[in-house]
Amino acid sequence: MLLTETILFVGAGSMAEAIIEGLLAKEMIPAEKIHIMNRSNEERLKDLHHRFGVKIVEEKEAIVDQSTIIVLAMKPKDVEEGVEGIKPYLTRNKLFISVLAGISTGLLEELLGDHPVIRALPNTSAAVGHSATALSSGKFANYEQLMKTRVMFESIGTVVCVEEKHIDAVTGLSGSGPAYFYYMVECMEQAAAEAGLDKTIARELILQTITGAAVMLKETDESASVLREKVTSPGGTTQAGLKVLETFNYQEAIRECVLTASKRASEIGNMYLHRIKS
Ligand SMILES: NC(=O)C1=CN([C@@H]2O[C@H](COP(=O)(O)OP(=O)(O)OC[C@H]3O[C@@H](n4cnc5c(N)ncnc54)[C@H](OP(=O)(O)O)[C@@H]3O)[C@@H](O)[C@H]2O)C=CC1
Ligand SMILES: O=C(O)[C@@H]1CCC=N1
């Protein structure tokens, strides 16, 4: 066990689950030192309790008091209510880690009352130890707290530290990123079915193809474009396939996808900033 903390997740949805599953798989912390709460969905809490052994918050005051790390993992629209629910019980020795898209450390510090806040932007691959997480510190968080957060997220994937102004870009790139690849797999599965391939065989081939491509990108020194060229024989099948992607403006579609998702993160931030300030 590498983390000696008691962690409270305020919001026990998809992202909280992925982080919890990853931390427990790496034996970073005993399950009984993780506490979870929701606004109302008790079934969900019971399900996580049964699957992972984590504890459901019964007495909020005592658990908030015991917790040394509080992970804010509700949707951005619920941030005010989520913070208000724990604020009366806060003492000074807490580190807040927020995974909320768009919500700045400044806004969180204002809502929380000047507590140390670190923003973490992971993705759901945390569940299997393969998150790509970016961290950014608020003005009250110190180096030791950043390192503690780094250790926690390094146990469930890779970690980069970025200036907060870049977190929205990270959100559109790697926070949402798994969904772009899942969508591609869905599309490839459909195409494989139309081409007459058995579903199970197609899935195995597609998954190994993505995994192989990712490992090639990681383990060779070659750029993506050089690796692409190595697959593409002049006048061959790949060239014919890629030409169709060009005809359908694939590059533009991916560019717009990532930039629009990033822009949405900053819109979400601005929306709640204005709502909370007004
Ligand atoms: N999913 C992802 O891939 C990623 C998500 N994020 C961020 O993580 C956060 C959570 O996302 P995700 O897990 O997908 O969302 P979910 O909707 O799956 O989970 C949100 C949870 O927050 C709970 N909640 C809502 N209001 C409160 C409250 N007042 N007090 C306590 N808990 C509350 C909800 O409980 P109830 O159902 O009872 O209302 C729900 O279980 C978001 O801010 C998102 O931007 C960041 C990176 C990746
Ligand atoms: O879709 C969302 O808003 C969240 C943030 C990044 C991934 N999921």
Automatic annotation (TrEMBL):
Stretches assigned to the Pyrroline-5-carboxylate reductase dimerisation domain: 164-267
Pathway membership, UniProt: Amino-acid biosynthesis; L-proline biosynthesis; L-proline from L-glutamate 5-semialdehyde: step 1/1
Compartment annotation: Cytoplasm
Pfam family, one: F420_oxidored
GO biological process, one term: L-proline biosynthetic process
Keyword vocabulary terms for this entry: Amino-acid biosynthesis, Cytoplasm, NADP, Oxidoreductase, Proline biosynthesis
Enzyme Commission code: 1.5.1.2
UniProt family annotation: Belongs to the pyrroline-5-carboxylate reductase family.
Name assigned to this protein: Pyrroline-5-carboxylate reductase
